[in-house]
Amino acid sequence: MRRSFWTTRAAHGFLAGAAIAALDFIYLAPLVSASGGLDAGLFASSLVLWCGEFVLFALALGAAERLAMPGELRAWQLLLAIVAAVCVSVLVWNAFSTFVLRDQLGMRLFRDHVGQPVGWAGSVLYHAWLMLFFGGLIAAVAVSERSRTRMLSALRNAELGRAMSQRQLAEARLASLEGRVDPDYLHLTLSRLERLYEEDPPAADRLLEELIAFMRKALGELNSLTPKETS
User: Fold this and answer.
1) Which residue, 57, 67, 64, 104, is CA-closest to 80?
2) Is-contact 78 102, C-beta < 8 A?
3) How far apart are CA 22 and CA 178, in angstroms?
4) Bond into 70 cis (ω within 30)
5) How far apart are CA 19 and CA 188, in angstroms?
6) What DSSP string runs through 85-139?
7) Coil, strand or helix: which one is 223?
8) What are the pLDDT digits (tens) for 17-26?
9) Which residue in 38, 86, 118, 132 could disulfide with 111, CB within 3.0 to 4.6 Å?
């Protein structure tokens, strides 16, 4: 479960980074084409930079979420976590890509192909701004979707609880009604009615009317509690 949590966060970060890399590549394509042409290696360098930053951003934000568990991050906590995740991811990955990938391994970065002087600080600010905008937007959408899922789950559980309560109430009333319409009770009443017709016919008529009224009421309530078959 823990591995799934971090793997999912890293995958989401990679997809977001790939999308931003494509947008950034398209936006800066005129500058790149004018200075040396477009190729797959150029896009790959942009992909490495943006995907690395967004993966770190997603993992840092996931760490903040894990610290808040089992609760949820409040609005100000989420904002603070986003800003901190942006700062960490941009500084760490830009430093790694500049001082390790480029200076030590010789990999040309996307900004090296633009044809204009771009310093490390300017690149950090540019990436931090885009990360803050798109990363915050993605985080807000994810939080909104989780809130919607929790709300739907709570409503579903409340509806199930209400249906269960109604069912239990109906079963209790049905059991009470069945106890009142007990066969032994009816047998004794009919036996008494038979004796009364021999000894006191007017009293027997009154008892018969009471029995009929009781049976009509009981059967009416029984029919109202019995589930109707759907056609």
Assistant:
1) 64
2) no
3) 72
4) yes
5) 83
6) HHHHHHHHHHHHIIIIIITTT-PPPGGGGSSS---HHHHHHHHHHHIIIIIHHHH
7) helix
8) 899 888 887 8
9) 118
Do residues 28 and 114 lie in contact, with contact meaning Cβ atoms separated by under 8 Å? yes
CB atoms within 10 A of CB 90: 24
Cα 77 from chain centroid (whole Å): 19
Written as six digits, the tokens of 186 are: 């009816």
Whether pTM exceeds 0.85: no
Cα(11)–Cα(205) distance, rounded to whole angstroms? 84
Residue 51's identity, in one-letter code, is C
Buried b (16+ CB within 10 A) or exposed e, 202-229: eebeebeeeeeeeeeeeeebeeeeeeee
Spatial contact of 73 and 140, defined as CB atoms under 8 Å apart:
no
- pLDDT classification of 52: cutoffs 50, 70, 90: very high
The DSSP annotation for 17-57 comes to HHHHHHHHHHHTHHHHHHHT---HHHHHHHHHHHHHHHHHH
